[in-house]
Design a protein that fits this description.
357 residues, alpha/beta, five-stranded mixed beta sheet, 9 helices
Length: 357
Amino acid sequence: MREKKSFKDRNIVIVCEGSTTEYNYISEACEYAKTIGRMPFTNVIILPINEKPISTNPNRRKQRRHLMGNKDECRYYSKVDTLDNYEKYKGQPTRYLREAQLFIEEDGFVEGWAIYDKDKHTDHAGAIELLDTDSRLKVAFSSYSFEEWLLCHFERNLTQFNKSECCDNDGHSYQCGCDNSDSANCNGIICIAGRLRKYKYIPEYSKTQTDLFKNYSLAPSGTLSETPLINAAWIRFKQNGQIRFDANPYTDVDILLLHLLDDSRIFRWFSGGEAIKLSQGEIVISKKDKVACITNISNKNVLLPKNCIKKYMSDGNIQSLSFTTIFLSPQQSVDIEIDDCPCLRIDFNPYYFFIEI
């Protein structure tokens, strides 16, 4: 093992399972963050770097564009491990986290991320073990695939897709969702890419497509669009605390993106009657008929600024509720008329809470 280095820079390594979709998307996000001066890291390495061969053997000319590694050299993509560790961590997706960990241990990186999907990987337990033992490691995970995050840009959907793309035996896409007569076209029922095309969300979607971050993830203001952030948080909320590696659908790619753009916003969903922690105390919101009851359940005074509570409609539209600043002493309640609104939104920057009532 090479001698450890120590850098004062705040640097990060991001290991992507895929060398196309995820790599292109995260690379674009990092470049954008640098352009607008919001990148909190002094050095970012994103793997796999397609031009870089994984083999040190000069007689082996072929370059790999994925992270399968090389068993003979105990190599992941660009890092070599000991034989014992390689045998322990070689399974997918554990190898991605292990490579990020080697960058931390050998090159002085302070943080390592792995971006991967559930797919049919067999060693999620190994990945969980690494995450539990090294707080410097993080995961941006999607189930069934990275396309789940892209779908969040357009809708909230709890369908348990089991393919990212329907392909033939040679790996060629059937282009599901397009207007073709291929009998294998699932029309977005089985694969997420097909749904993106079927409903014209990304009409000509392909895994090699570029500019997805710029064209779909950015709001006109130049910040990350709220829609995918809200929808991804909703999907996690609907999993009722299920372990993310067992959940489908699931995505937390948004957490990495907020991190890379130094964006402090936090989006969370709650059920009616569930305790909501604010900086001042705790409240619960319940509904009876067309009235929402807000109760301060803490032993501190709670101040809700004017118009911080809004109606959040099923289509994502926001409607203001006309009320003045609300002051609640401990255990005090207040009623607000909300008609038939299914959900309330509380803007308490940087917190954005959504309560299904």
